[in-house]
Structures are given as C-alpha cells and as structure tokens.
Amino acid sequence: MREYLVTILLAALITYLITPIVRDLAIKAGAVTAIRARDIHLQPTPRWGGLAMWLAMALTLVIVNYLPLIHKSFGSDATGIFLSGTFILFLGMIDDRFDLDPITKFAGQALAAGILLIYGVQILWLPINGITTLPTNIGQVLTVLFVMVVINAINFVDGLDGLATGIVMICAASFFAFSYLLAVINGLNRAGAPSLITAVVIGLCLGFLPHNFHPAQIFMGDSGAMFLGLLISASAITLTGQVDASAITEENGGSALLPLLLPFTILAIPLLDFVMAILRRVKAGRSPFTADREHIHHRIMRMGLSQQRTTVVLYLWTAMFALSTVIAAFVPIWIALISGLIIFLISLLVLKTNHKKVEV
User: Fold this and answer.
1) Mean pLDDT by 10 residues, the chain (360 residues)
2) What is the pTM of this model?
3) DSSP per-residue codes, 290-346
4) What total of structural domains would you count in the chain?
C-alpha cells in the first residue's frame, strides 16, 4: 500500500506543478473556451488540462517503475492503456483547439478502444444464464461500446468547475479500493494494472483540482475528459479480468460478479446524466449531442445553489453510490446501505442551505 500512496502523491505533485505551465501554453496556442450560451463560466478559460494530466502520468510511471511492487504492474495491459490514453489525449487536444465534429470524435474514440484490444484489454465474459464466455468478436464490440459510453459520460458531466475532476477522483478511489481489497482478501497479486492506473488517476485529479475548482484557472477540456474516461473504463475492464469466471457459483455469485456491476454503480451519476441527455434530445427531435442547459448540475443550480455547492452535492451523490458498492463487496449489506443513507442525508443538508432560486 505504501508504494501506491507514493504513486498517488507523486502524480498529484507533478500535476499540480505542471498545470500552470500547460495553462500558459494553451493560451498561447489559442486553446481557450469562449463564452457560449450554454456555459456557466463568465471568463474565457484555457483548456488542455488533459495535457498536464498526461505529462504527469508519464513522469509518474517512469519513476514508480523502479518501485519493487509497482514494477510488477507493468504488463501488456498497462502498456495498452497508456498508448490508448496517449492517442485519445491528442484527439482531445485537437478538439479543444479546433472543435471537431462528433463523428470524427466517435471514430477516434473507437480507434482508442481498438488499441486496448490489441493489448488484450477487453470484456471476456458476462453473467448470462450463469457465466457465458463471450466470442472474441462480441467481446471486442462490447469493449469498444463500453469505452465510448464511459468517455462520453465523463465528457457530458464536465459542465461545472471541478465537477468532472472530483467525480472521476471518487470513482478512481472506489475502483482502487475494490481492486486492492479484492487482491488482499483473495490472496492475489496486489500489483496489477487496475490498482496502478486508478492510483495514478487519483493523483492526477487531486493535483489538478486546485486549478480547476471554482473559479477555474484551467479546464480539463475534451482532452482531459476523454483521457480520464478512457483510463477509468480500461481499469474497469481489466478489473473484471482479475475474477476467475469458472470459479463463480450460485453461492459466491453476488460478490464475484460485482466487478461487472461496479462501473455502473460507481459511474451512476455520469451515466445517468448521459442517458437522460440522449433521451431528452432525441425526444425533442434534436441531435443527441446538441448541447443544452438541462444537465443534472443545471437543474440543481436552478434550485438556488452556487457552483461550489452544486459540485459538492454531486460529489456526495457519486460517493453515495461508489462507497456503498465497495463496502457491500466486503461487509454485510446493511452497513453499505447505512453508509449510503448517511451520505445522502448530508447531501440533503447541503441542498437546503440555499433558498433563493436562480436562473441558469
């Protein structure tokens, strides 16, 4: 665990120090978000936060490769995740600067997922009529779809200063806790791509958040949202690979299948916002990817909350799902339910602190 803590702190420190440099670079390159009708921010803000995260990740991986335990995590899957993340980062940087059309971005996201497949990162089985080992082509298609959905879910929720950064950090911490505890309890190797990548993501978000929380000095942009979305989705897929599907029985099926359910519960808020936005826009006869001001954070702000309070509420809701799911894997379910209820009650207190409604 100490080596993972070193990894988190190292990634956080490097990200924190590099971000101001990248911010100046983004301004000089013209990668700046102008004020649009749907935006909450009032000042043009540089993007390319994803570049700072990628640089910090690369430097962190080079350094922690010399740690005895972490060194064992550098397999083909970790290599594939890094290369795929590099590709999606540069796609996002181009989009941040020139605003690519949706089709081009989808094609790039699919190619990034394809890089994962080349390095063996893919969904291998599903709980259908017991356990069904998927044909290679079906598993590959599902992997690409899953990666693209998570990437766009993170991108959709990136609408307030620090919102996506904090949500991804909570998600990554939950994935890390689950993968590490799963290894400890089952006597598995504690060094693996899921633990390594999620530890790095925690550090990246932790170091970036001071620059990104309201009032944000820099946005992560599509480069950051797609980069983090890919890292989280790839970590979830490799996490399922740690479970021996042939060992799953009716008695242990609930806990053993949790790695497949974990991404959907931990990412509940981004995925819910993503699905609601698609349905809302299609019902209105508009493109599913036409921007609007009806996301979850917009609706909460119309209740009278500031950006900061709205962000905190969504952090709490994310933690409510994420923490409860991880706890349920290792202790009685009632403890998980009580934990989730406590977090939800705290969020209600935050919601009720403001009374005056505002227009958003």
Assistant:
1) 92 97 94 67 83 97 92 88 96 92 94 95 74 84 93 86 92 88 67 86 97 91 94 87 52 52 80 86 80 79 85 93 86 90 94 58
2) 0.88
3) ---S-SHHHHHHTTT--HHHHHHHHHHHHHHHHHHHHHHTTS-HHHHHHHHHHHHHH
4) 1
Query: CB neighbours of 106 closer than 8 A, spacing ≥ 6?
Result: 148
Q: What is the C-alpha to C-alpha distance for residues 182 and 176, in angstroms, rounded to an integer?
A: 10
Q: What is the tens place of the pLDDT at every residue in 219-243?
A: 999 999 999 999 999 988 887 766 5
Residue 198 structure tokens: 């999620």
> Residue 94 sits in which domain range?
2-266
For residues 50 and 227, the answer to whether their CB atoms sit within 8 Å is yes
Cα separation, 59 vs 50, in Å, equals: 14
The answer to the question of residue 298 being in a domain is no
**Main-chain phi, psi angles of 42, to 5 degrees:** -110, -10
* Residue 289 counted as domain residue: no
User: CA 157 to CA 69: how far, in whole Å?
Assistant: 35
**Cα(first)–Cα(last) distance of the chain, in Å?**
44
